[in-house]
Every structure is written in C-alpha cells, then in structure tokens.
Amino acid sequence: MKKVILIILPLVLLLSFSALAYAAGCMDKDSGAATGQVTSIDLTTGTITIEEGKNAVVMNKVYKFDNETNFVEGDALKSVKDLKPGDRVTIIYKSGGNDIYAKTITIEK
To answer: Cβ-count burial of 61 within 10 angstroms (0-12 exposed, 13-18 middle, 19+ buried)?
Structure first.
C-alpha cells in the first residue's frame, strides 16, 4: 500500500502544478500584449487597428473585439465608443485561428 501511495502522490502533485501553471497563463503560447496608437475602429466588423512600433519597424495590426472585451481607462470601465483614432492603447489578446481577439483594451492617459 505504501508503494502505491508513493507512486500516486507525485503524480497528483505534478498534475496540480500543471493545472495551476495553465490557469495562470504560463503555458498559453497564444496570448500576449501589444501597445500602439489606434489608427481605426470598425464597429461593423468589431475590429480595432493599431500601429505598433518595434525596433524601428512600424506595422498595423488588427484585433477583434466583442461583448467579452473589457475597455479600461485608469480605474474606470469604458466602452468602444470611448476610443478614437490617435489614442494610445495596450491590448491584452488571445489568438484563435486566423484572428487575434482583444480581451482587454486599456486606454492610456
């Protein structure tokens, strides 16, 4: 009986730590953050385009938003209607298929 416990206990611990790491986002390779300036917002398609600059290379990236997307400015909740071209934002995103979905869009002051 002790041998069974010695075998099962490490497996349970390993699975527990794996679940915690996954829940914390440590194992999610399809998510990230991006910061840039809003160039356009399309309410019809539910997309926001931002201009990102990295290492002197500037590119436009399109992110989808929906009812699940949180819009934040400081401590206040906002909506997509509070966004305008020229605003600087940070987007927490998750990739899904060919699209990139904005989970949180923070409007920087």
So the answer is: middle
How far apart are alpha carbons 43 and 37 in whole angstroms?
17
Q: What angle do CA 109, 65, 30 make, to 5 degrees?
A: 95
User: Binning pLDDT at 50, 70 and 90, where does residue 14 land?
Assistant: very low
Which residue do the tokens 């934040």 mark? 72
Read off the pLDDT of residues 46-76 as tens digits, 9 standing for 90 and up: 999 999 987 778 899 999 999 999 999 999 9
How far is it, in rounded angstroms, from Cα 10 to Cα 3? Answer: 12
Q: How far is CA 31 from the centre of its chain?
A: 5
Q: What's the CATH class of domain 31-107?
A: mainly beta
Burial of 79 (0-12, 13-18, 19+ CB in 10 A): exposed
Beta bridge pairs of residue 32: 93
The DSSP call for residue 80 is: G
